[in-house]
Structures are given as C-alpha cells and as structure tokens.
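User: Just a sanity check before I run the rest of the batch. Below are the structure tokens for the first item. I only need the designed sequence back.
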C-alpha cells in the first residue's frame, strides 16, 4: 500500500513539473463539438444523487444540442441503480458494464476506430481513463468532474484530528488525493460542484483550469401528492397528517450521509423529541444497510421508509427537511430537493458556504447540535414560519438552481 502511494506521489510530482500546455478554453469553444463520450462511474439515473445529477445534465445537453452524438459507457451497480430508462432517449449509444469491465481495456474495445472531440470523465473513479483517452483522442477536450474533491476531505480529516481515530482512512485519503492530482493535471478542464470545492483544488493545483457547475433541479414542477398514507417497509404505516415530520432524504450508500445521520440521531433527535410530542423523523432514500438500520432505528419516533420511487407525498406533507453534514463537501442536492417542494430546511453551516439561500429567510443553518435542534423545534411549532421559509426557498431554487439558468455555462464547458 505504502509503495503504491509513494509511486503515485512521484508520478504526480513529475507530471506537475513537466505539465503539458493545456487547451485554450476560448479557442476550444470556437470549434463546435460533434461527438461526446461520457465515461461515468455511476449510471445516469434517478436512483441516487450522483446519477441524477449526470442524468439531468445530459438531458440539458441533449436539449441544447440535439444533433450532437453522445456515447455513454457506465458501470452498473444493481444495489443502487434504478430509473434509467431515459438514458436510451438521451444517448445515441449506451454501454453498461460491470465493475470489473469498467476499465481502459474494455473502453478501447468499445470505442476503437471511433472519433470523439469531447471526453467527459464523471466521478473520481473515471479518472483512470485519462491516459488512454489522451492517447486515443489526441485532439479531444478532456473534462474531469470528480464531484467530491479528495484534497478537501483530506484537509478536513487533518483539521478535525480525525487522523488519530482512523489511520487507515487517512492513508486512503492521501492515496485518493494523489490520484486526484494526477487526473486533474492531465485533463483540460476540471468541473467542480461548488465554488468552495474549486477553491480547495486550486490550493493544490494553482495552474488548474476549472469551473464550477452546481447540482441543479429539474425544470418541471413536482406533481401533487396523492391523498394516502405512506407505507414503511420496516415499521408498517403512519399518517403524515397526524405527525410533525422531519424528513432526511439521502443516498445511504454514502459514508458522509451515514455519518451525518448517526450524528443527528445521537445528538439532535433526542432534543427535538423532548420538545415536540408528536414529532417523527422519517428516513428516506436508497442504499440503507440493514445492519446499520437495526442499530439506528430503535425508537418509535423514527420511521424508516427507505427507497421510494416518488417522494412527492412525503415531501409535500412533511414539516421540515434536514441536511446535516459532518464534512460539508460534495453536492447540495438535498437542500434544492426540499426547496422544490417548498419544504423548509435546517442544514449545517458547512453546507452554506457557497449557496444563495439566506440564513433566517430561505433556510436555517446551524453550527452545532443545540442550534440544529432549536431550529427544528422552532419550525415544527410555527406553521407560519415554515410556510414563509419554504416559499422563499422555492423562489431561490427556481431562479438560481435550475439547469436552464446554467445553459450558458454548459455550452461553454462542452463547446456546444
């Protein structure tokens, strides 16, 4: 392991010293792209936040450039992938492969003899294709979208002294950060999901050409919820109209989301429960591990719904949406998703560094467990405050976080 890390570090340092001349972004955009190759570690689908972001992005690309040929090669994971029928309408060619086949050798077999002038590497793990893509498509624009900046995670571990508790995690963070440096150094443009992420990677690679493209929400409005109770696979049914419900919606295959859920349940949930007698926490989303559920969900005020195809009924009848964060990196899709449904949100301050929602007006940010609980209680006990913050959050989301509002940036990034 240490030899592998050392080898990667030497490789990165060497590359940084001999960094080749990058494409000029303005010159690139003068040449309209005709063929895009998307290499995605996750299938563009509605089953998880990362896949949904890529699906929405390429739906917009297809709308902006109907004549562009787009090929997809993606790794499939039956544990998290669902709702990806639309990819066959968006992409001209679709190759879905297993984890083992998501490799440079398989890529070479699929695209050998074909021509692409834009290669899009979505997610950190897709960076492994960068060398082959550079050799096969010499004149192509190569874009790297890591979604979570590994150097930021590494710094957060060091800053919070988590290194004393998790040495293996520290070594893994170092290794991934070194990979990130190599991938970013050998691409033409790095696309980050937030200005904070962009600033963090620029600290490591000041010369880097980068841009940020936030996670947005679909332009269509949510459909009205049907008038029925919600079935919970673990604990029967409950009536949203009889409870003051706090919803936590996330993909539970993410370590960050699981850590944040544990933090909320152990530190915030008891405080809210003590103040609001008919309060209930609803846990919603895909990828929940049964062993983790057994440990976490041992409280009558906690309802595990898990995966649900259409969350409209829950969002539109819930009282508060929450977005706690241990680290604060990555996407902010949960906050936008709540805002689409006019659901007021309580979130960690770490998530607010680069958002346009205003404290006290369209969102409530909290710096610690006490504040988080206080905000939740305040919203649960005050319908007028809930409605006001929810309405203003919807306005911010509609104006500032729709894919339509970033059309010019998308054209600029992909040369459309």
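Assistant: Here's the designed sequence for the first item:
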């Amino acid at each position: 392991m240490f030899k592998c890390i050392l080898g990667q570090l030497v490789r990165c340092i060497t590359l940084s010293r001999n960094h080749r001349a990058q494409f000029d972004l303005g010159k690139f955009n003068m040449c309209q792209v005709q063929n895009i190759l998307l290499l995605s570690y996750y299938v563009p689908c509605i089953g998880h936040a990362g896949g949904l972001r890529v699906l929405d992005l390429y739906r917009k690309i297809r709308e902006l450039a109907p004549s562009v040929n787009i090929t997809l090669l993606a790794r499939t994971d039956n544990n998290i992938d669902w709702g990806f029928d639309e990819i066959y309408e968006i992409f001209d060619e679709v190759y879905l492969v297993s984890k083992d086949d998501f490799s440079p050798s398989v890529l070479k077999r699929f695209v050998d003899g074909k021509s692409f002038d834009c290669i899009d590497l979505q997610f950190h793990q897709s960076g492994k294709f960068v060398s082959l893509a550079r050799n096969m498509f010499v004149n192509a624009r190569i874009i790297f979208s890591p979604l979570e900046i590994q150097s930021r995670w590494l710094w957060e571990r060091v800053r919070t002294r988590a290194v004393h508790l998790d040495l293996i995690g520290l070594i893994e963070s170092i290794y991934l950060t070194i990979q990130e440096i190599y991938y970013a150094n050998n691409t033409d443009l790095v696309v980050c999901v937030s200005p904070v992420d962009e600033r963090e990677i620029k600290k490591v690679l000041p010369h880097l050409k980068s841009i940020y493209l936030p996670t947005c929400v679909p332009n269509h409005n949510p459909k009205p919820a049907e008038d029925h109770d919600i079935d919970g696979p673990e604990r029967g049914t409950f009536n949203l109209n009889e409870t003051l419900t706090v919803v936590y919606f996330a993909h539970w295959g993410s370590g960050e989301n699981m850590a944040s859920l544990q933090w909320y349940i152990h530190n915030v949930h008891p405080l809210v429960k003590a103040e609001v007698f008919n309060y209930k926490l609803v846990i919603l989303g895909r990828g929940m591990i049964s062993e983790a559920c057994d440990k976490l969900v041992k409280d009558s005020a906690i309802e595990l719904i898990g995966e649900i195809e259409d969350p409209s009924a829950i969002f539109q009848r819930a009282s508060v949406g929450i977005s706690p964060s241990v680290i604060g990196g990555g996407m902010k899709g949960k906050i936008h998703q709540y805002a689409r449904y006019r659901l007021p949100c309580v979130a960690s301050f770490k998530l607010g560094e680069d958002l346009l929602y205003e404290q006290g007006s369209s969102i409530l940010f909290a710096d610690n467990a006490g504040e988080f609980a206080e905000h939740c209680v305040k919203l649960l006990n005050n319908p007028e405050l809930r409605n006001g913050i929810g309405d203003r959050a919807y306005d911010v989301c509609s104006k500032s976080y729709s894919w339509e509002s970033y059309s010019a940036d998308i054209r600029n990034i992909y040369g459309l």
